[in-house]
Structures are given as C-alpha cells and as structure tokens.
User: Fold this.
Amino acid sequence: MKIQKILNKIKYQIVLQHILFWLFSIVLFTIVLFYTRDFSFRDIDLKTAINIMVTILLLAISVYINLLWLLPVFFRRKKFFLFLVSQTLNILLFIVLNYYISILFEGNGHPNFITEAIAEFILVLIFLVMSSLLKFVRDSLTLQDVELKIKEIEQQQMEAELRALKSQVNPHFFFNTLNSLYSLTIDKSDKAPELILKLSELMRYVIYEAKDDFEPIDKQLQFIKNYVYLESLRIGDYLKVDLMVEGSNTSLKVAPLLFISFVENAFKHCSKQKELNPFISIVFDIGRTDRIHFYIENTKESEIPDLKSQAIGIGLQNVSKRLNLLYPDKHKLEIRETAQKYSIDLTLFLQ
Assistant:
C-alpha cells in the first residue's frame, strides 16, 4: 500500500510538471514571437492569440508523440533508425500543419514556405530536445527516488520482522528452560536452586543485554557456556558435552541469540538417551576476521522424526528466517543427518 501511494504521488507530480512546462512555454513562445516578428502586446488580437495557441497545441502533439511513442517504442529499444525516420515524419507533420493553419490567420502576410519551415523546424527541434532531456533527467531522478523509498520501506519491514522474530526467541527459550526447572522441582532435586541461579543469569542477558542488533561474539559465547552448564546440570553426567572455541577474535560482531536455538535443539534430542551414551560437540571458530564458523553435532534417537522432512521446531525455523534477513547471501547453513547423528554447520561471512 505504501509503495502504491508513492507511485500515485509521483504521478501527480509528473502532471504538475507538465502543466508548469507548458505554461512556461506559452509565455516564452509569446515573448520570442513578439520580439522576432516586431509585434507588441498592444497589437495582439483574437486571430493572433488563436494562432499562438494552435502553434502551442501542435507543438504539444509533436512533443507527446515523441515522449509517449517514439522514445519508449524505438529509442529505448535501440531501434535508432526507425526512431530517426519516425522523428523526421513527426517534425514534418508539425511544419506542414502549422504553416497551412497559420495561413488561415495571416493570409498573404505569411512568410514563404522555406523561410517558415526553417523557423518552425528550429522551434519544434528545440521543444523536442528540451522535453526529451527533461524526461530523461526526471525519469532518472524519479527512479532513484522510488528505489530509495522502496528500500526504506523494505528496510522498515525487515526491521519489524526481525524484532518479531527476536521477540519469539525469549518465550521459546524460557519455555524450554522452565520446563527443565519444573522437572527438577517435581523430583525435588538438590540441583534446583543452582539451576534457578543460572537461569536468572541467562534471563538477565536475554532481557537486558541482548538488545542491540549486533554484539561482540564473546557475550554470546559466555551465554552459551552458561546455558550448556545449566543443561548439563539438569540432565546429569551421562551426557557428554564438549564446547570448544578456536581463535581469539572475540570482538567479532554477530546478531544476538543466533546460535542458542541450535544448542537447544541438540540438548532436546539428547536429554532422553541415557542408554545410548549421548554426546554433543560444539565448535566456534573465530580465528578469522571475515567469518564465523559454528558447528554442532549430537547423537539422535531412531524414533525422532527426520530433521529435514518435517518442521524442526519454532527455534530453528526462527533462526533460519533471521539468517536470511540479517545475512542474505552472506551465510551458509547445512543440516546433515545420519543414522546416529545430527549436525549443523553454519558459516557467517562478515565482509
């Protein structure tokens, strides 16, 4: 709707520009006519006024034949020969019509055809060249203006969608974590107080710190370390979790809460695999300044639905959408599955 309003506004502006152009042309044409033909404004009569208006009308016809037909049909399609032929016929049509119509008003006092044809050729050529140049300039500026406004609207829409997606992370994350806390309180586990303490730290980050569009990756690393500790505390020692950070470029900027959904998904698949010796391996490679490489691998249960064939949960759908918005054509996400393992391989290209 906003784009349509912009286009309608541009149409009104174009109509106004045409009206101003022809008002200016009438004034200019009248001044030139009176100075070149030794007229004065006191000598103007009805015939002269009508003659001037007819000439302006014929000029307008030639100009709009050029603007609405010759330029878009021939010139813009690079049919230059047909354009020159058609433009020549357009000019000749103006010269002939204007000469013989002018005879009706001026009678025998009208100049001979050759003299008048040269003057009218110069006149119509000036109007055609001037209107064509104005059209090219206006179209170029209008196109830039439309593109700029459309980009602004698209940017606003993208930011709104990102805010909506980001707001979904919080309830989804807390829902999963509170479920974990609930299971411990049901079992009257001694781990519950420590879990609550860690959960409060995670909540503080999500609510108060993860507000910027981008943040240093060391904040997310610390957040994920706390989450891994919390989940390991809840699940128990039977789950082996390895978290490795390769490289030292901790100041690299990345969107907040971007990796947590992958980590949550891994713990979800491993939480009930006590007999299978489950494991989760998480690797962050921040050794380069132009990219961040994230890899996570975990065991799976045979009865868990195929990760690729079905919806993989609101968290993974969310992060996939965020990646497409935040890193269009600047990320590579691969989800692999074997009989025993899931793995997610994500590379963010920062430059």
